[in-house]
Design a protein that fits this description.
By secondary structure, the protein is mostly helical. The chain is about 70% helix and about 0% strand.
Length: about 400
């Protein structure tokens, strides 16, 4: 009976609650922000990297995609104008996803931008691009705008206007932007579907049309039956998808570290503790040559960092059930990625991995951090300083005791 009751409680929790709202929000902000910074940095080089001026021509990309069944919206047309539109959409959707504006829609548009650009020129980028590629797909499954987003603020205000603390559908009954955005994206998707010159990414078109239809059903349920069974059913399905997506993100991070660590163990340079020495001596990975030379000249530091990297990566998946040890290794890995960004000049790889690591950050710490940021923000507002403008979760988070930060 105890086992049955425990299983029933677990099923109820998974189906009735979108778990990890703060973690999914941090992942959303981290990956969208990383991709946004990358696109802005490469703005002068965009045509050489992904566009018509690159060595990997549109014809070559078309032939490759026709063979591997990948998806890229840039294959809908080879015009420079279309490329600029897609690049602009990728930048805009990344910014809006960071802000949490229409996160359900922006997560899909964000995925469209990431896949379109990366699959257009697959030989551009590094491991960070691969992580962003995967996470952009997983984010579509999550309800990543529950906190720290414009969506959450809008829903809270709508609930307050209804005289209740929860969403009752008033927001959807007065919403005008959502239906217009849905209609515009549907029209663009229809044009892209009928003009697709590759016809090998049918799976992606089916997925996009399915998401478009689901969004219509969600709006209709909120509009006509906010407290009825259709809305409740859609909520349960959304929670299940969210929790599954969050679990996949966590499993992906563990898989990345486990495979990286076990492959390192098999390398002779990692076994003798000298692996870090060689990238430090490559000009391509030495933005600060003097600093790289100082580290490379100290054999003890090289050996400690080399072995420490392997130990942390191999051990991390096994520490998830011990939160204190997990938190220590989590901080170690984030510091490791920060060091890679500075020493090897790979900032976007490091930012992507730190964003992925953030899915394991403690909820109490994230709420505390949100409270701190909310108070700092309020100080710069007219009449600020009292915290009155902070979101409810930020006010609650600012009151957490320091001893809960490892919880």
């Amino acid at each position: 009976m105890n086992a049955t009751a425990t299983a029933a409680r677990a099923v109820h929790r998974v189906s009735s609650t979108a778990l990890g709202p703060y973690q999914s929000a941090v992942v959303r902000i981290g990956f969208a922000g990383t991709w946004l910074f990358y696109l802005l940095r490469e703005l002068p080089n965009r045509r050489e990297l992904y566009g018509p001026d690159g060595p990997w021509s549109w014809d070559l990309a078309r032939r490759l995609i026709a063979g591997n069944g990948a998806f890229s919206g840039l294959m809908w047309s080879d015009s420079t104008l279309w490329f600029e539109i897609v690049y602009g959409v990728a930048v805009l959707s990344s910014l809006l996803l960071v802000l949490g504006w229409r996160t359900r829609t922006m997560s899909v548009v964000f995925m469209f931008g990431v896949l379109s650009l990366q699959n257009r020129s697959i030989f551009v980028g590094d491991g960070g691009d691969n992580v962003i590629h995967l996470m952009s797909i997983y984010l579509v499954l999550t309800r990543c705008g529950q906190v720290w987003s414009l969506d959450a603020r809008r829903a809270a205000r709508a609930g307050a206007e209804d005289g209740a603390g929860t969403r009752t559908g008033a927001e959807d009954r007065t919403d005008r932007v959502g239906p217009v955005l849905w209609a515009v994206l549907g029209a663009l998707l229809f044009v892209g579907s009928v003009t697709d010159q590759v016809h090998f990414a049918v799976w992606m078109l089916i997925l996009l049309w399915g998401l478009w239809v689901c969004q219509a059903l969600w709006w209709a349920a909120n509009r006509f039956s906010p407290g009825g069974e259709p809305r409740a059913l859609l909520d349960v399905l959304a929670n299940l998808l969210h929790n599954a997506g969050l679990a996949v993100i966590m499993a992906e991070v563990c898989l990345v570290y486990a495979t990286a660590g076990w492959y390192k163990i098999q390398g002779s340079r990692w076994e003798d503790g000298t692996a870090l020495y060689y990238p430090l001596k490559l000009d391509y990975f030495a933005p600060w040559p003097a600093l790289s030379d100082i580290l490379a000249a100290n054999g003890v530091i090289v050996m400690i960092l080399t072995y420490g990297t392997v130990i942390v990566q191999v051990a991390f998946p096994f520490t998830l059930f011990n939160r204190r040890v997990k938190n220590v290794l989590l901080v170690s890995m984030m510091l490791e990625h920060a060091g890679i960004a500075v020493l090897l000049g790979l900032p976007f790889l490091s930012l992507a991995m730190i964003a992925a690591d953030a899915v394991f950050l403690p909820t109490a710490f994230l709420r505390w951090l949100g409270g701190r940021i909310g108070r700092v923000r309020d100080r710069f507002r007219p009449g600020g300083g009292s915290g009155a403008g902070a979101l409810p979760e930020q006010r609650r988070g600012g009151q957490e005791e320091a001893r809960t930060l490892v919880g």
